[in-house]
Design brief:
Length: about 130
Amino acid sequence: MSVVVNRSVTLTGFSEAFTIIGQVEFFYKQFPENMRSIAGSFLFCGFALSSYLSSFLVSIVHRATGGVGKRNWLPEDLNKGRLDYFYYLIAGLEVLNLGYFIVCAKWYKYKGSSVNTLDVALEKMPV
């Protein structure tokens, strides 16, 4: 079981490292110049909020799956629990999050992009 947990922690570490790089670059390019430090604070506030939500999700799973005659998904001994169901729940939430991200990404207008810009192929540019 410790191999699964170690792989999970490693994968989480890699995902957070790649997320931080992308988010810092996005915030620095899209925020006004005098608000870039606030953009950096949004990044870490987001990580703090996600940690609280993660703890809240675990407590909800404990309450919903524990009880008399029920088999808790996340007991003290993980070999006796249903950790796979918890990961399926997380995967389902991530699919919903991906759909929400795609909707937001379609509606987002990047700073500096305007509708009036004209795209011309490089071959058709006058010399």
